[in-house]
Amino acid sequence: MTQAPDNVVALDLPIPGEEDLPADVREYFALCREKLGMVPNVLTAYSHNLKQLAGFSGFYNELMLGDSELTRLEREMIAVVVSSENRCFYCLVAHGAAVRVMSGDPTLGEHLVMNYRTARLDQRQRAMLDFASHLTRSPSTVTAETVQQLREAGFSDTGIWDLSNVIGCYNMTNRVAIASDMQPNPEYHGQSR
Q1: Helices marked H in the chain
Q2: Sign of torsion, CA 87 28 164 107?
């Protein structure tokens, strides 16, 4: 078995070389390479445990690409704000790049990375990101009133469910990325600058 690049995570994981992966995973990685120009290091890291990779990628793809009243850009914006609160280098770089690419606005990505409160946002986006910050920093202080503010900003209860899942997902992935010292792919750094 060949080893994957050693700059993915600081942990000594048995990450297989891509040619040693099952055909369906190689096809998934080829699709990533076609659409993104790379295989994100998070997927490379998860490839050491194929069941975890399948669970993670299935949940991620449904959460970030599936039908929702949250736009794909808004989901990426949430990922950046949660990652900013958690100071997750990997996710700030990767999702900050996605915000720059999807919005066509490199300054929006930088605002969200540094301090989303300085960004020009509409009322709905402001409420969404305020909630992302609040649920990340102090989840035990979220109340029915907090949720009602989202309804007043235009979110349905299904939208609030989706919003909460995106926030929860990035709180989990931030912790895994931080604990493993996961490194972002170098390609992310120069996207849409």
Answers
A1: 23-36, 41-46, 50-65, 72-86, 89-103, 106-115, 123-137, 144-152, 157-180
A2: positive
Class of domain 72-190: mainly alpha
Ordered by start, the domain boundaries in the chain are: 18-65, 72-190
Domain 18-65 grouped into CATH 1.20.5.810: yes
Cβ-contact 86, 171 below 8 angstroms: yes
Q: Are 112 and 80 in contact (CB under 8 A)?
A: yes
Query: Counting Cβ atoms within 10 Å, is residue 15 exposed (0-12), middle (13-18) or buried (19+)?
Result: buried
- Give me 73's structure tokens: 């850009």
Q: What is the pLDDT along the chain (193 residues), one digit of tens a residue?
A: 444 455 788 888 999 999 999 999 999 999 999 999 999 999 999 999 999 999 999 999 999 999 999 999 999 999 999 999 999 999 999 999 999 999 999 899 889 999 999 999 999 999 999 999 999 999 999 999 999 999 999 999 999 999 999 999 999 999 999 999 999 988 877 776 6
DSSP annotation string for 139-174: GGG--HHHHHHHHHTT--HHHHHHHHHHHHHHHHHH
- Cα gap 95→132, rounded to integer Å: 15
